[in-house]
Structures are given as structure tokens and as C-alpha cells.
């Protein structure tokens, strides 16, 4: 395939000082005339390849365009490969594959094993264990719409289950706390909105394009706001759920209570989300203080019991 051959020729030219047309032709089993046409195509794409005549001549990429491999340390290359690999597993695309190929071309043979070892020391897997089967195709659709400035249409499910039809200008994909979001300008609300992908139905990329407007980045850090809203509750937990509780607070907040239990100072906000967190711990967690939150937990527990009567 021609595109594969062109990418391969670029990789070879980045790696070598100079290579002849005949050598390239034999390598790819094509005629020298085909190689000359490929070189013209690479030049038209903006990569400056020039031919050097005479003995020892051939094609080379202009030195000003090349990146010296020595610029990148082993740690640099390991970090870049780690990031690209984790991203390419979740968001597929030719540009990520090509970027990986280019970075790998910077790795000298004598450092390849060391860099592979360092890359494999950390695994970043952004894909869920299980969940919404639409997530992967939706990411691909949104990525294409971002690149081509095309409108997106979908139905959006609000907190209470209400559905609304939205036409949105996409501006950013956001991964926050293991959840994917789309930041875009909503034509229905005439404002920028952050849409959670798991609440999107029937996502489609429209043919209409849009002219990008001044972009407003979403507010993703609520630490200062949460500190003013947050209180602390005292809970007693069984040791079997320690790992789950540690997702919300540090071990410094744990005090042993006998051989099987811990008393925990647990960060809490009086809303549905945080009550649901406490209930998710089931019978292995008891809220002790403050008394009004304990009373509310008892009321909600009675409602849940009545539901199954």
C-alpha cells in the first residue's frame, strides 16, 4: 500500500544519513521511478527531502528538519512512549500510530532494551473493566468532529432521567476521575456545557461545520469550593472494606477499633452522592456521628426496607 511505503520511507530517512533510490527500490520491491514519485509526494507533504548526486549520493532529509536522537534521554523517551501507548489504547487513530513510530525511531539500538523495560514498569490502562459499550465509538466520533470542526447531535439524559436533544460544537474531550466528558458549545443553552459521555444517546456527527468561537475551558478543580461545603463524619467500618474507603481518604484518618474494625474520620457533603457512597459500603459501615446524619441514614434505610416489603 502506497501510504505504508511513504511512512516507511520517512522513518528510514529520519534514521539514516542518506540512502540511494536503488537501495530503497530493492527494499520495497518497486522500481526506482516509483521511489522518485514517492520522494516527490513526501516533499509535497512538507518534509524537505533532497537528492545528493554522484558516488555516495542518494536521498536525505535536510539536517535542519531532523531531531538529534541524543536530545532525548532514556527517561524522556520512556515517558513519551508511556503516554502515547496509554492514549492509543483508548483513542485509536493513524496520527497516534505514526507518532509512536516516530518516537520509536529515535531509540538507538543499544538503548532499546533499557527503554522497553522502563516503559513496562508503569501500565496506564484507561479502558473500563466493564461498562457502556458506546464509549469507544463515541470517542472516535467526537475525535473526528474535533479535527474537522463538525457539529454533533445527540440526546442527553439529565440527572432525573429527562431527555433533551442537543446540537453541540465540540471543543474538548475530558477524562476526569475515570469518566469521559465532552466540553462544547450547546446551541440549545447558548453557552458552553460539559456533557458526560455515559449520558449521551444516539451520538452523530453532522455534515455542517462551524467556525470555532473563543473557547472557555471547563472548571475541573473544585477543591476550594468543596472545602467550604465539606464536613467530617465518624464511621465504623469492617476491615474488609478498607481498600474501598481508602479511595476517599488517607490511612491517617483510620483508628483501630478492636481486631476487625476501624473508626474513620470520613470526608462528607450532605447530598445524594455522598449518602449513596456510605450506603454502598452496606452493613460493613455504620455512621456514628454527627447524630443528624446518622438519623438521616436510618430514615433512608427504612425507606429502602419498605421498598422490599
TrEMBL record:
Residues 2-57 form the HTH deoR-type domain. Coiled coil: none annotated. Pfam families: HTH_11, WCX, WYL. The keyword Transcription regulation applies. InterPro entries: CBASS_pafABC_assoc_protein (IPR051534), DeoR_HTH (IPR001034), HTH_11 (IPR013196), PafC-like (IPR028349), WCX_dom (IPR057727), WYL_dom (IPR026881). The keyword Mitochondrion does not apply. Keywords: Transcription, Transcription regulation. PANTHER family: PROTEIN PAFC, PTHR34580. This is YafY family transcriptional regulator. It comes from Faecalicatena faecalis.
Amino acid at each position: 500500500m502506497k501510504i505504508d511505503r511513504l511512512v516507511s520511507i520517512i522513518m528510514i530517512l529520519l534514521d539514516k544519513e542518506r540512502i540511494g533510490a536503488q537501495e530503497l527500490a530493492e527494499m520495497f520491491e518497486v522500481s526506482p521511478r516509483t521511489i522518485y514519485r514517492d520522494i516527490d509526494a513526501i516533499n509535497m507533504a512538507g518534509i524537505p527531502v533532497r537528492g545528493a548526486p554522484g558516488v555516495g549520493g542518494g536521498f536525505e532529509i535536510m539536517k535542519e528538519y531532523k531531531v538529534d536522537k541524543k536530545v532525548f534521554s532514556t527517561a524522556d523517551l520512556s515517558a513519551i512512549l508511556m503516554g502515547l501507548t496509554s492514549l492509543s489504547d483508548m483513542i485509536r487513530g493513524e496520527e497516534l500510530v505514526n507518532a509512536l513510530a516516530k518516537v520509536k525511531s529515535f531509540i538507538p539500538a543499544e538503548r532499546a532494551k533499557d527503554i522497553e523495560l522502563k516503559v513496562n514498569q508503569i501500565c496506564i490502562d484507561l479502558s473500563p473493566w466493564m461498562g457502556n459499550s458506546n464509549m469507544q465509538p463515541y470517542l472516535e466520533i467526537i475525535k473526528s468532529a474535533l479535527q474537522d470542526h463538525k457539529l454533533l447531535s445527540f440526546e442527553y439524559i439529565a440527572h432525573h432521567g429527562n431527555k433533551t436533544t442537543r446540537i453541540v460544537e465540540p471543543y474538548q474531550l475530558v477524562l476526569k476521575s475515570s469518566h469521559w466528558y465532552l466540553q462544547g458549545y450547546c446551541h440549545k443553552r447558548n453557552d458552553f456545557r460539559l456533557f458526560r459521555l455515559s449520558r449521551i444517546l444516539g451520538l452523530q456527527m453532522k455534515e455542517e461545520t462551524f467556525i470555532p468561537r473563543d473557547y472557555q475551558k471547563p472548571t475541573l478543580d473544585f477543591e476550594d469550593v468543596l472545602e467550604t461545603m465539606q464536613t467530617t463524619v465518624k464511621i465504623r467500618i469492617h476491615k474488609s472494606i478498607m481498600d474501598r474507603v481508602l479511595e476517599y481518604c488517607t490511612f491517617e484518618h483510620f483508628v483501630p477499633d478492636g481486631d476487625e474494625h476501624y473508626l474513620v474520620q470520613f470526608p462528607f457533603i450532605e447530598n445524594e452522592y455522598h449518602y449513596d457512597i456510605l450506603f454502598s459500603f452496606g452493613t460493613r459501615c455504620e455512621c456514628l456521628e454527627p447524630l443528624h446524619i446518622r438519623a438521616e441514614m436510618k430514615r433512608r434505610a427504612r425507606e429502602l426496607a419498605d421498598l422490599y416489603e
